[in-house]
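Hi U.,

Before I forget, here's the chain from the pilot set. I'm dumping it here mostly so it's searchable later in email.
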Amino acid sequence: MTPEVPYGNRHPDYYSEWGNLTIQVMETYFKISDIKFWTHSQFFKIVAKENGTTVKDFEDEKAQRPTNAEARMWKLKDVEVNDFERLLWILYPPDHGKCRAKTSKDWEAILKLADRWKFRDVCNLAIQKLASFPLQPIKKIEIMHRHHIRKEWVFDALVTLVEQDRFPAIEDTTTLGLEMTTQLARAREEARGLLLPWNRIRLGSLKDVICREFGLTGGLEEPASGWLAP
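Structure:
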C-alpha cells in the first residue's frame, strides 16, 4: 500500500484528493490528474504506450514505488520543487485567467522541464515569453543552444554582438561555440565594411549581413510550428 502522505508535506496548491497521480519531488508531494501528462507530453505518451499508465521503470525519470488502486506514486529525480511547481502553473493554472509566471527565471524553469519531458506546446510558449525579456545576448544564445531553438530567435542578440565595440570574452565564446564564434567574426568584419559608402550596395544592410553569415533562412517572425528546431 502507498503510505499516507503527511499534511505538512503536501503541496498547498497541487495536492487534491481528486487526483489520480501522486508525485514526490524531494520532500514535497503533489497529487494531480494525470491527463495532461499523457495528452501534452511526447515523453509520457511513449511511456504510456510501452507500459500502459503504470509507468514503473522508465530510465531515470522516476523511482519505482508501490502503487494501489487509488493512485500511482512517482518520485522524480533531479527536479527542484519550485521548478516543478512552475511547470504546473501552465499545465494546471491555480488562478483561472491569470498566469503566475512573471519573470525570466520563471519561464526558464518552465522551459527546462517542458523540454526535458517534451511538452512541445509549453516549450514554445516559454520561448515566446522569454523573447519579451531583455536577456543578455550571451544568455539568450545559451538558452538557444541548450533547448535547440531556431537561430532566428536570437537575431536581436546577434545584432548586439555584431555592433558592440568589443568581441566577446573567451568564456563567452565557449557558450557561442566554434561555429557561431567564427560566423560572428565574419559578420563583424562585414559590418565594419558597411561604414564605407561604396560597400553598402555590395554588402546590403546589417540585417542582410547577419542573415547571410549566420545562415538565418527561416524568417525572423515566429514560425507557425513554433521556435523549436525541427
